[in-house]
Amino acid sequence: MNPVRIPVVEKVLSANDSVAAATRAQLDARGIFSLNLMASPGAGKTSLVERTTAALKATHPVGMVNGDTSEAAFDAERSQRAGALSIHINTGGKCHLEAAMVRDALALLPLEQIRLLLIENVGNLVCPSAWQLGAHCSVLIASIPEGDDKPYKYPKMYSGVDVLVINKIDLLPYVDFRMDYFRRGVETLNPGLVTFPVSCRTGEGLEAWFDWLRSRLA
Q1: 107, 106, 116, 41: which is closest to 74 by C-alpha?
Q2: Could you tell me which of 115, 133, 5 has the C-alpha nearest to residue 66?
């Protein structure tokens, strides 16, 4: 008797996608624009959330869902201090957020008060992009100290996103980072990818990011 192959991963992802589609419909019905923010640890996800919240909260109230592998809610607390309505998800060690986690978190947020939803995924360049969450756009935040080889080492992540933010460009004079080599790798994987070189520390380049968000929110 030949062994039976059970496509467990496919079934799990299919179930996840169904929940994500329901979440997207819920957000659309409420007029909420949402982003799935992905990056390696330390790239600047929370810093971008803070800057974005501070810039847009007066006209577009911000909600933030933070996913992390522990109970430490430092990032959600930082975004809350910046003015976002925030909630923390402890993934219990899982290296990514899943659609059901986001769905349950949204049930605890006052969605009627939110126009922009920022979902800060677990810091990881391997698996988060495989899991749909119901967000309208997937955003990858790269950073100069990570090195210029990341598109070549993590092609699935770079090929599967809608927007790229290159953070910490203020460190370019001090770090051996070949921007042309990096951008060439990105372009090969994801031609024409919308890209924003920024520094969350100095504010350089952030206005273009804010303008893009305002255009999508409009």
Answers
A1: 41
A2: 133
CB atoms < 10 A from the CB of 192, how many?
6
pTM greater than the 0.85 cutoff: yes
The Cβ of residue 59 has, within 10 Å, a number of other Cβ atoms equal to 10
- How many angstroms separate the CA atoms of 68 and 188, rounded? 31
Per the DSSP assignment, residues forming a β-bridge with 118 are 35, 64
Q: Distance between CA 12 and CA 112 in Å, rounded? A: 31
The pLDDT profile of the chain, 218 residues, written as one tens digit per residue, is 555 444 545 666 789 999 999 999 999 999 999 999 999 999 999 999 999 999 999 999 999 999 988 888 888 999 999 999 999 998 888 889 999 999 999 999 999 999 999 999 999 999 898 899 999 999 999 999 999 999 999 999 999 999 999 999 999 999 999 999 999 999 999 999 999 999 999 999 999 999 999 999 98
Which of 167, 164, 195 has its CA nearest to residue 50? 167
Closest CA to 137 of 97, 194, 183, 198: 194
